[in-house]
Design brief:
Elements: H1 4-10, E1 19-30, E2 33-44, E3 48-52, H2 59-65, E4 76-84, E5 87-88, H3 96-102, E6 103-106, H4 117-127, H5 134-144, H6 148-151, H7 164-177, E7 182-186, H8 194-207, E8 212-216, H9 220-226, E9 229-237, E10 243-252, H10 253-258, H11 263-269
Parallel strand pairs: 3-8, 3-9, 6-7, 7-8
Antiparallel strand pairs: 1-2, 1-4, 4-5, 9-10
């Protein structure tokens, strides 16, 4: 397991880049078991950061730390700091609901509301106090998610009537409608066909012009296609016999795939385990 100094040095990118999120010694417990240990990461603004690694290594657990979704899991607690724009998201005076507005989430399985396509976008904005022209917001959000041309003539139809790939892009439109800084994506293409996956990947490239994106993916080819930065996580067995996850290496995507510094990274990206 890499030392703190190794993690720190490998998580540093150019000093010219603004870091919008930082994990500082993040450890996540489920009851008394530390499932993810000692993570240090700096996530640059307006870039795509991919989290890769075998199942059970803590990728999704860390992702949920970034907008405090782990708060909703009984027995889960987070130690260390998650810094967003110089504020620790786990300080007592931080509103978790506001955190989730600024740091949105797109889940593995498309989950549109059982409402019209229009209301899927408008509902969240409305309950968050949006006062401007709702029609304009709906159109802009659907355009940003590259789905407007496909749904503009059926905005009153139920969002669940769309195909899986369209539903996922609708969920992305719903997330960006709240004007977040960061969009988290937890394996957003795992249930999609190759054509829909390609559309979502193209969309990710476009969205980083306005948003910072952190994506969990099991698909290493996808990480190499969409990510500027890539973090490789692994898992090992602790003294209690339970497996815990940890960050092995974090660097520019091309370096992770072409010149990894750790043997386990080289083995994973080479397809020897996972």
């Amino acid at each position: 397991m890499p030392t703190q100094e190794q993690q720190n040095s490998r998580s540093q990118t150019s000093q010219k880049e603004e870091m919008i999120l930082k994990a500082e010694d993040v450890t996540v417990y489920y009851d008394d078991f530390a499932a993810l240990r000692g993570v240090y990461m700096d996530i640059p603004r307006n870039q795509v950061t991919a989290l890769i690694g075998p199942s059970g290594c803590g990728k999704s657990t860390l992702l949920r730390c970034f907008n405090r979704l782990n708060d909703l899991i009984d027995g889960c607690r987070v130690e260390g700091k998650v810094i967003y724009r110089d504020k620790n998201l786990y300080s007592d005076n931080i509103d978790a609901v506001e955190v989730r507005r600024r740091i949105g989430m797109v889940f593995q399985k498309p989950n549109p509301f059982p409402k019209s396509i229009y209301e899927n976008i408008a509902y969240g904005a409305r309950i968050n106090g949006y006062k401007d022209n709702m029609d304009d917001l709906v159109e802009k959000s659907l355009r940003q998610a590259a789905i407007w041309d496909e749904v503009k003539d059926k905005l009153k139809q139920n969002g669940l009537s769309l195909s899986g790939g369209q539903q996922q892009r609708l969920c992305i439109a719903r997330a960006v409608a709240l004007k977040p800084d960061v969009v988290l994506m937890d394996e957003p293409c795992s249930s999609l066909d190759p054509v829909s996956t390609s559309k979502v990947e193209d969309l990710i490239h476009e969205l980083k012009e306005e948003y910072t994106i952190v994506i969990v993916t099991h698909n290493m080819q996808q990480a190499s296609r969409v990510a500027d930065m890539t973090a490789f996580f692994n898992a090992e067995e602790g003294e209690s016999g339970n497996r815990f996850g940890y960050l092995v290496e974090y660097d520019r995507t091309e370096d992770i795939f072409e010149n990894p510094q750790e043997e386990s990274t080289k083995s994973y990206v080479g397809g020897h385990f996972g």
